[in-house]
Amino acid sequence: MTGTARADGSFALDLGPVLAADGAPGVLDAWLATSSVPALDVWARHPRYLSEHTVVQAAPAETSGDGLERHEYACELRLRLASVVTGRVRVPAGWRVEDAEVSLGGDDLAHADGELLGLERATCDAEGRYAIKSLREGRLDVRADLAGLLPAGAPIALERGATLELPDLVLEAGRAAIRGRVDLVPSLIAPRGADASGAGGMRLDARLGELRVLAWRVRGADEPTAAPAPVATVLDRSSVRGLRELRGGARLATQSCAVQRDGSFELRGLEPGSWRLEVHGLRVDTVLRDCEWPTVVAPAQGVVLGEHLGTLTFQVRDSRGPVAGALLTLGGGGSFSSLPTGADGVVRVAADLRHDYRGNASCEGRESVPFELPALGRAREATLELRLADAAPPARIVLRAPPSGAPEHVHLQLDSLDDPPLQAREEPLSLRDGAYAAANVPPGRWQLTVRPAEEHIPVAFHGATWLTERFEATLVSDGTFEAQLTCAPGGRLQLALHADPSLQSSAVACELVRLDGRPVPPPIFVSALAGEGFGVFSASAHLRLLGEDLRVGLRDCLAPGTYELRLAAPLARATPVRFEIEAGQTAQAEWRLEPLER
Fold it and tell me: CATH: 3.30.750, 3.30.300, 2.60.40, 1.10.1760. Which one for 492-593?
């Protein structure tokens, strides 16, 4: 259901009654009438502002004369004026422009703990048109990519709240290509559990289309760089006038192509020079780090990939059968990888046939089992069974829900209190027969944390408003730990954070206090890099300043009351932000951080 905001920014949506074709109450009315605390997703969208979203709970029901329950929802969505970059992408005949992607980035892309957080991206419509909304401003880079073609892009100067229409970004065919074939054993291609010889009538070569060859540019001092853009200056609303198109101007670092059913591949859209090749999409748990892929000088013909690769399949078992979650450590020389076994107790890796390997299989509470695999005489497909001692019988956790108001799904986090600690666990649990149950938990002392279930987007921005609950539990072999959940509703906090540019990429410690003196758990922040759809998420115990303007939420809900969020470290200065939490609502607040000295 959609509606239009009024001149003062307010809006109202009439949600019912919804009637089916036969005049009976529809799904929406039935859901509202039977749900104890109904919730509703609300989005606000505008072509010049970043889209915003919240989940709101209904006010207490009122029964009307027709006997149906009526609920009222109230929320506030604060839209932020965005900078908008628009334009068109053109591709050669025979290519789909809808497959092209346009990205916006620049020096303000935060590197937190050495991790590049990402770009703001947009796809193209059938006409090649695109639009990117962002809170960034200043010197940025726009780039258009499509696998198999040379990219195009240019530096731009973007003003806050302005719209910049760019010339056409023209993607072109490359000046060089690398052609060859892949030589892989069947177990590297067939899905796990399938008969590699062609179970179910599927020919092995039909699965080759799931593989891709990736090429990374290896640049030397004499290697050519990307073709220059037709303009040497940064594009802004003045300099784009008179320009009809842009070709080149973007450095080509990687390229990819699909592997055909006969095993052949053709990497197009390359520049002459050295390229490192790899095959991706192998049906294994990992490719060991010491597997050496070739470097090829483009253009090239007759390249063979994968002939040095083999498959090592490890089956970890005890007297009861396969051991799920056992840790397999494998490597050679100074390079080792550690992987957990699946439900079938199996780990499958792609290994270099020219290398010796050694390692061990282990599981909590059991002795590890070592092994050695010399390269001499090893087949391209090898299987090794590793037998562990039997484990102590596991424990079970049962969290009983209240008679009404319990969510269908919760998230259970288990942190070990033993020394040395057991491996932490996280599990989604569903409500069945009035309880949430977790089985096969190792005996020991655990801290249990139960919070609203997370799906694809962090609950700090889109989730339900159930209060997080914590328990300490001592689990014994073959025993059951039971606890009662209250499933009480709380409220959420979302901050519009404004930080001075000099503080960018900082991580600031904060403390959260409740003004009535009651204890509050330390805050965990979920941050969203500015962009349409909230951009890139990260979670941390510190407030991470990923840009000048940032959406921040607390991962856990808070009990109703008045709170203050304060800086706990002298990296910046800010007046504590005070906010009121109401059950079932999301509080909106703004906070401005400044450097200590200006």
Answer: 2.60.40
